[in-house]
Write a structure and sequence with these properties.
The structure is a single chain. The chain is 22% helix and 29% strand. The chain is of the alpha+beta class and 312 residues long. The radius of gyration is 25 Å and the shape is flat.
Length: 312
């Protein structure tokens, strides 16, 4: 019988499967994923409960001058509430017993372990963003960054269009009372790196002047105004055509973004359970189960988060 590689996603009868077919492409094709949505949160901590309630002081407090013994006014702000519910993200990878025995140095184990953890992080990132590789999804978290109604448009026709859009988003946050510079942050698609490199300072408006122009952003120029930058491949790219629901970046007041982690990735191992109807013991398989529990909630979402869209 010809030697069969578990990575080939063949049947059990053909020599065993290292990864279930639906996971094989995800873990083997080398798809690069970068997650940053949860890192954008200004309130990131562990929790011992499944649900956390927040008391939120909404509006702006007011005060008035009153006479001695006069009636004191009630402030214009009021308390409301919000709830963060912990969700679970999981994955199972199965190894053949031969694979575990033959790969003593652990190279394959390490490769798969790293990629499964990254896959879980990418799912968490997609639910926090509200997009999966640029496609809108209905996330399971209590809030989604792209769910905000506050938007500014990126003018792709302008060399400094991104810088202008970020400034406009910051201006919206400042007008909403979220102007503390040290509390702001940007989540952007990684393709922004080339967008910044290729930007050119044009002069005169002629083709010759444009061709000879210097780079617009150098060591002393920062299109992000010094704000911390986080990346997510789940946002829309800067290279794709514009259209509805295309969000290339998000500017946010970070303290309004709350992330709670019930526990980080936990791994359980078994060779006696059944996975997808397949007996691990009967088929000489060992399953590795990965589970992460956490959630996200954003208070005052529509005023504390601004999406930068590519509508044209």
């Amino acid at each position: 019988m010809a030697n069969q590689s578990p990575f080939s996603s063949l049947s059990d009868a053909a020599g065993g499967i290292l990864l279930p077919p639906e996971q094989g492409a995800l873990l083997i094709d080398g798809i690069q994923r970068e997650s940053g949505a949860l890192q954008l949160a200004g309130d990131y901590r562990t929790t011992s409960s499944r649900r956390e309630a927040f008391s939120i002081f909404n509006g702006r407090a007011t005060a008035e001058v009153v006479g001695e013994g006069g009636t004191k006014p009630v402030t214009g702000a009021e308390f409301s509430g919000g709830t963060l519910t912990v969700k679970k993200i999981a994955s199972i990878v199965t190894f053949t017993d031969e694979m575990i025995e033959d790969v003593q140095n652990g190279d394959v184990n390490i490769l798969v372990d790293t990629d499964v953890r990254q896959a879980i992080a990418d799912v968490a990132d997609a639910n926090a963003v509200g997009k999966d590789s640029g496609t809108n999804i209905s996330g399971t978290f209590d809030s989604e960054l792209t769910g905000t109604t506050s938007t500014v448009e990126w003018d792709a026709s302008k060399q400094d269009g991104l810088q202008i859009a970020i400034s406009a988003a910051m201006g919206t946050l400042e007008a909403n009372g979220y102007g503390a510079f040290n509390n702001l942050g940007i989540l952007v698609h990684p393709s922004v790196a080339r967008q910044v490199r290729d930007a050119r300072a044009t002069g005169g408006g002629t083709a010759s002047a444009t061709a000879q122009a210097q780079g617009l952003y150098g060591q002393a120029a920062d299109p992000f105004y010094g704000l911390p930058i986080y990346t997510s491949t789940n946002l829309n790219t800067f290279t794709e055509a514009g259209g509805s629901n295309k969000v290339v970046a998000v500017v946010a007041h970070r303290p309004n973004i709350h992330v709670r982690v019930r526990h980080d990735v936990r791994v359980a191992v078994s060779n006696e359970a059944s996975v997808g109807g397949t007996s691990l013991f009967q088929n000489d398989l060992t399953g590795f189960r990965y589970v992460w529990r956490g959630g996200m909630f954003i208070h005052d979402l529509n005023r504390a988060v601004v999406s930068i869209t590519n509508g044209s």
